[in-house]
Amino acid sequence: MNPLIQSYGKWLLLLVAIAIIAEVVWNWKNECKVYEKKETVANLSILVGHVIFKVLLTGYQLFILQWISQWQFFSLPKNALVFGATFILVDFVYYWYHRWSHEVPFLWGFHLVHHSTQQINFSSAYRLHWLNGLFTPFFFASLALIGIPIDWIVLSISLNLLYQFFLHTEMVGKLGPLEGVLDTPSAHRVHHAKNPQYLDKNFGGVFMIWDRIFGTYIKETEAPIYGITEGKVGYNPLKIMAFGFTKLINKTKQQKTI
């Protein structure tokens, strides 16, 4: 693996650890009850699996992007303007990938893992399905086709996801004029809520502009209730990984018998 990528991964894990410790201290001092022992252990176990599969799938993901780029329509230069455009386009693609992950049953089988947590805190940010990386490169392939440098696509995705890590918290309230423009902890709490009016809202990664354009933005007006509408999944990481697809298979069987 590229030494730069290894170094980035180590610093990222250190940053995640520091943020979680700081939030745990804040939670303890203020008695906010945003951490629960079994849920936190499940989140951290899933994080370990996520890191392992991230390492295993990185080469595959880069290969897919490079393979698709051989049919690129243009070859764009590396300058500040193109990088700025890349960052915005990555967030636009992420909006639709995220939205379809809620609307397409197969994709929801993966994404459900992230929403199955019943508490929002930094430890829940990387509560992600371990096999997500098998298909995510295909969503960003369009950017490789229009000639955007692959390393800038990867960097923009990484920055987008790093930004989103800090959205998973109760420590930060509303951010005034930034609400409705950027994704904020308040906006993302709404996204994780199962309150009827909050379902399938606020899909943006960094920007809320796409949600406002496509009619999926809503403000946080009442306390969010976290989790999925089906209820509690449990604390076993393997059960959490399989839950969405077990549910999908059972539903398919029921439809065939009708």
TrEMBL record:
Localization, UniProt: Endomembrane system
Keyword Lipid metabolism in record: yes
Membrane topology: Multi-pass membrane protein
Pfam families: FA_hydroxylase
A cellular-component GO term for this protein: membrane
Transmembrane segments: 12-28, 48-68, 80-97, 138-163
Lineage top rank: taxon: Bacteria
Keyword Aminoacyl-tRNA synthetase listed: no
Keywords, comma-separated and alphabetical: Lipid metabolism, Membrane, Oxidoreductase, Transmembrane, Transmembrane helix
Main location: membrane
Entry's Gene Ontology BP terms: lipid biosynthetic process; membrane lipid metabolic process
GO MF term set: glyceryl-ether monooxygenase activity; iron ion binding
Domain Fatty acid hydroxylase: 85-216
Protein name: Fatty acid hydroxylase superfamily protein
Species of provenance: Algoriphagus zhangzhouensis
